[in-house]
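Cross-check.
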Amino acid sequence: MSHRTLIRGGLVVTAADELHADVLVEDGRVAALAAHGSAAAESWTADRVLDAAGKYVIPGGVDAHTHMELPFGGTSASDTFETGTRAAAWGGTTTIVDFAVQSVGRSLREGLDAWYAKADGNCAIDYGFHMILSDVNEGTLKEMDLLVAEGVTSFKLFMAYPGVFYSDDGRILRAMQRGAANGGLIMMHAENGIAIDVLVEQALARGETDPRHHGEVRKVLLEAEATHRAIQLARVAGCPLYVVHVSAQEAVAELAAARDKGLPVFGETCPQYLFLSTDNLAEPDFQGAKYVCSTPLRPREHQAALWQGLRTNDLQVVSTDHCPFCFKGQKELGRGDFSKIPNGLPGVENRMDLLHQAVVEGHISRRRWIEIACATPARMFGLYPRKGTIAPGSDADIVLYDPHAEQVVSAATHHMNVDYSAYEGKRITGRVETVLSRGELVIDRREYTGRAGHGAFVHRSTCQYP
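Predicted model, tokenized:
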């Protein structure tokens, strides 16, 4: 039996266009768009009509960098796939791409199957996986080909975290060469972890144990150096490169220089680097621990370079790197030793609103908001045009967004399973009102109507971004 939903009277905003149009949804997909009041639109009938007058009608957000249930530093991220995807939906995100983890000495298959098991039947919205490569060898290189065929088409390597995720340049080069051959996109955590570990050891020996020292030892120059090195390795391998969570002006400059040469090098930043700074890391009474993540928060003057990079397309994507740890009992593991504070911030629920606030403040346009939060991540990770736009044939992942509603961000009202908000007290103009995932109402006029198990694994193609 066919189910039709009509979204009437809103301003449809995509990366390519803005138009006053009605949207017809049939059996979970967008069937048609027509100008509001046109003969075509007036002829449509539907089981359900959603009034979008005065609202934006936008594609559901695609958050291409989350870590639900990630084991890290002797504990695990506090959001499960159930709580994390529900919170994502509240924030207008309808697809996440999470990271499955290969353990050293184990196969990629074993790691991927573990993440399938965590997510299966638990997600409120659709999801895909990247694969973290912790142990590059002949066996895992061959497995990369199999994963690409299975729709897991991106692979993350770390130049940081020696003894945990770290890969040396030789292993990185081999993985990049394999990606060049099979079409898999290489994602890079670009920080010089070997040098950082020396600075950590020296800081602790001097008695510098507070959270603010986390940012001081993870130096801007060590992010820029690793970014430069990753770019050169990718050039040698002949593969595209996607640098995750870019936080520093000098790292943006490395990406811009590479792109000016016409190289297929891409960069992502996150809301925490656009809206927070080392001032937060320096908050007294260990409160700064709430803001410990890697790459770290930077001095406020780096924000202008990140916004400029987003405007000039030297940075293409804003993801969250959502990896929440509660302050009580988790972040507190690092009292007296900043190196033991679990690295990560909550944010999957806040991203679309924070970026709309950036539209309000004039940093980016409305269409650029949708481009960096929906369309480009979908293209980058092989989901477009099924995700990331509103067009005939696309999944009906649609958000009715009230651009005039005002809200104050707070842990008291958010839906993430974490006991603090990184943006506590921040006033925002704009709020998600209604969310459809494949045509099903997940949020209905600020009421959760979704369910665990609605979200499905999405088989991704290889990178479609030019």
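The mean pLDDT is 98. The first strand starts at residue 4 and ends at 13. Passed to J.P. for a second look.
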